[in-house]
Specification:
With 322 residues, this protein is an alpha/beta fold. The protein is 47% helix and 23% strand. The chain has two domains: 4-112 and 290-317, ATPase, nucleotide binding domain (Nucleotidyltransferase, domain 5), CATH 3.30.420; 129-284, Nucleotidyltransferase, domain 5 (2-Layer Sandwich). It has a six-stranded mixed sheet, sandwiched between helices. The protein is globular and about 50 Å long.
Length: 322
């Protein structure tokens, strides 16, 4: 065993903030000894008020206080911090970033939709074999959804769409939400339809917490073994069942977190509509996200081995406490 290094990744999203510690032995990612999700929901502020409120700012500072303890505990050598749609759109984003840098010594990079798409694609290309076939890679967030058309291990096209689950939770009644999502998906189809690869899709690869939740619901509702796959009929049945439940029933009966129980309804309808409109029957649900692409980029820049598979496989049982 070589010298162990610990890197810390911070992914500040619109619905949640995810913090992971990754252990690297020389050129190989060994494991992820710590992983925690914080239900920050910054998009509540950013998408309605155009700024991050003082209340949310205080919440961020409290989280970064915890992160400083993590850095010391794990003797972290590098910290990689990115922020996406909510901070990207907040008018006071530079003020908040500066405060965090001055107070905690952590530099946050606000990344573009293009950068998000690149990280998602790199993570997927490492995790699964897409060297043969055409796939839509969909990274669904609270503020935006990045969609990449991949074919034979290459990115053919991508776009970032302002379709986010946090943006959709206040659209009522259900029929209005469905109409809004259907219109957004029409725009997605219009964007990609000129590509011949799009007309011969082998499946959709979904990234993000809502896709992972669909996999878990497949197991809970239909007693299926795998949580990393679903077909079109299963996604349709999942949406029909959860949309009939109240918010409280989704929390209590399906054991969902409160900040997942509301966004899962528009999320599952978006997945269903995209599958239907793109004429796709297969949905792949790998347990990866843009933070895995971030680790892979870090390894590449350090000229290390491109391997995050052990990290992905290990994540199911990582700790959330010190």
């Amino acid at each position: 065993m070589g010298k162990l290094n610990h890197i810390l990744t911070i992914d500040i999203g619109s619905n949640a903030m995810r913090v992971n510690v990754v252990t690297i032995d020389g050129e190989i990612v060994m494991d992820s000894p710590y992983s925690k999700r914080y239900p920050t929901r910054l998009g509540e502020d950013s998408f309605t008020k155009g700024i991050i409120s003082r209340k949310k700012e205080k919440m961020l500072f409290e989280i970064f206080e915890e992160i400083k303890i993590l850095q010391k505990h794990f003797k972290v050598t590098d910290t990689l911090a990115i922020a996406t749609s909510a901070l990207r759109e907040a008018k006071n984003n530079q003020e908040i970033i500066k405060k965090i840098k001055d107070r905690f010594g952590i530099k946050i990079e606000i990344i573009s939709g293009k950068h998000e798409a690149m990280l998602a694609f790199e993570a997927v290309r490492e995790w699964m074999d897409i060297s043969k076939g055409n796939y839509l890679i969909v990274d669904m967030g609270g503020g935006s959804t990045e969609i990449i058309l991949g074919s034979n291990n290459e990115m053919k096209a991508f776009e970032s769409f302002p379709i986010g689950t946090v943006r959709l939770i206040d659209v009522h009644p259900l029929s209005s939400m469905e109409k809004k999502i259907s219109k957004s998906v029409d725009e997605v189809i219009e964007y990609f339809k000129s590509y011949p690869e799009f007309r011969k899709l082998d499946g959709i690869i979904g990234l993000g917490g809502n896709f992972r939740r669909v996999g878990k619901l497949r197991k809970i509702l239909f007693s299926k073994e795998s949580t990393t796959y679903a077909n079109l009929n299963e996604v349709k049945d999942i949406y029909n069942q959860i949309s009939m439940l109240t918010y409280e029933e989704r929390v209590n009966q399906l054991k969902m977190r409160k900040d997942r129980a509301d966004v899962i309804v528009p999320a599952s309808y978006l997945i269903l509509t995209l599958m239907q409109q793109a004429r796709v029957k297969q949905l792949h649900l790998p347990r990866i996200g843009i933070r895995d692409g971030l680790v892979l980029l870090y390894l590449n820049e350090k000229k290390n081995l491109k391997s995050i598979k052990k990290l992905i496989n290990y994540r199911e049982n990582v700790s959330t406490t010190l």
